[in-house]
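User: Structure please.
Assistant: Input sequence and predicted structure:
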Amino acid sequence: MSANLLKINIAGLVASFLFSLSAAHVFGQTNASPFDLMRSVSLEKRYQATEFLEKERQETIKNLILILSGNFSPDVKDFSAKLLGDYRASEAVDILVQNFELDLRPRSILGLLADDYIQPATWALIKIGNPSIPAVIRNLEETDNARIRGLSLKVLYQIDGDKDIVQLRLQKALTAQSDPQKKDRLKAALQALLDPKSGK
């Protein structure tokens, strides 16, 4: 949402409050506190503002997903992935998993960047939290790229914050999986979780 639209929306809320306060005094409703008047009169306005902000949020998320899906520079995609994490955009989980490659490219000013700029897709998935888990486990089943598998495990561990919980999730996925190749990848992920030095 543009800064101008936000200012207009806030100005509308303030104007409604001031108008209602003036009207109350004109009509002799002086017993009500300003806060009571604000709550009663601006309820509809607050609902409209919330609805407006949610529409703007959904439109922004849609555009950020299109950027990650399109032919844009890695820097633009980096920033889009970070913003999707800031928005906690659960609808962007699949496209973020597909863009783990963003987190593998070298950065010349590595020491000057925060983690969510160095690994924007990883940290976006971590910020989104539990909705990321199925897609990340599916990623562990389907990719052989060791570095991306490492990032996938990092997401699971950062979300749960407990190696035992991650282990249970992977074991549950392993039990449910019938494809031999995917089962082998999940076994390798479990091994890497329990023994990081294994390098798998």
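The two ends are 43 Å apart (CA to CA).
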